[in-house]
Amino acid sequence: MVNIDLSGKTALVTGGTGQLGRVMVRTLAECGANVVIHYNSNEEKALELRDEIRSLGRHSAIVRADITKKEAIFAMKSEAEGELGPVDIVIANAVVQYAWTSVLEQAPEDYVSQFESCVMQSVYLAKAFAPGMIERSWGRIIGINTECAMQNDPTQSAYVAGKRGMDGVYRVLAKEIGKHGITVNQVAPGWTISERDRENHTERSEGYESAVPLRRRGTDQEIANAVVFLASDLASFITGAFIPVNGGNVMPTI
């Protein structure tokens, strides 16, 4: 029987209170991991999730940090490991939100925010957590990318620029630290159904779904399932991968 068992591991999820992050947090805990929940402003949700994870018999802590700042990420590491010990699994899920528009109209600051929250967050997380993983000869670094990085559709430019830059960092990092038993991978969601959609009854989008080979939108749980798989020993020989979880809406080529 195939089983995902993360018992004895500690995971950190940046953007852990977000629509996708909260389901990753719950699923990691259900698979046995202790979980550090990063948040930026939604402390109420972070506390709710922490208590939910503890009710499952796991250890959990919350940490607030600006993931675009190196000092904040290193302080987050100290706080997280002070409460739960070494972090084995790092999931870079947080990203700055902004209003999308055309290249000609997009504010330059939006490109900066995407670079900082996609590329530099990934770099700072690696600098903070990879050395400990190297010492222990085990680790998982998982970035949440997007199908948009392959679509390159109008109004996506700042987001695509940030995520494609993130992709480059992850591919190089996978080659640099693989010899230490650390895998580095990316999950690229499509337009995903989340708790917000269920509350607002906005799960369906016939225009989008009609172009998806599986003819539906994915769910937040399906994204979390891919994350815990990559975090587990079932994926011990997968690294440097960019895995779309979008029903085939975009397909990497060889």
Polypeptide structure, described:
With 254 residues, the chain is an alpha/beta fold. The chain has helices at 21-30, 43-55, 70-84, 108-136, 148-151, 157-177, 195-200, 206-209, 220-231; strands at residues 10-13, 34-39, 60-64, 89-92, 139-144, 182-189, 242-245. It has a seven-stranded parallel beta sheet with strand order 3-2-1-4-5-6-7, with helices on both faces. It starts with 9 loop residues before the first strand and ends in a 9-residue tail after the last strand.
Outline the fold blueprint.
Layout: E1 10-13, H1 21-30, E2 34-39, H2 43-55, E3 60-64, H3 70-84, E4 89-92, H4 108-136, E5 139-144, H5 148-151, H6 157-177, E6 182-189, H7 195-200, H8 206-209, H9 220-231, E7 242-245
Parallel strand pairs: 1-2, 1-4, 2-3, 4-5, 5-6, 6-7
Helix content: 40-55%
Oligomer: single chain
CATH architecture: 3-Layer(aba) Sandwich
Distance between the termini: 32 Å
Major sheet: size, sense and barrel closure?
A: 7 strands, parallel
Q: How are helices and strands ordered from N to C?
A: EHEHEHEHEHHEHHHE
By CATH, the topology is Rossmann fold
Q: What would the average pLDDT be, to the nearest integer?
A: 97
CATH homologous superfamily name?
Answer: NAD(P)-binding Rossmann-like Domain
Structural class designation: alpha/beta
Radius of gyration: 17 Å
What descriptors fit this protein?
254 residues; alpha/beta; Rossmann fold; 9 helices; globular
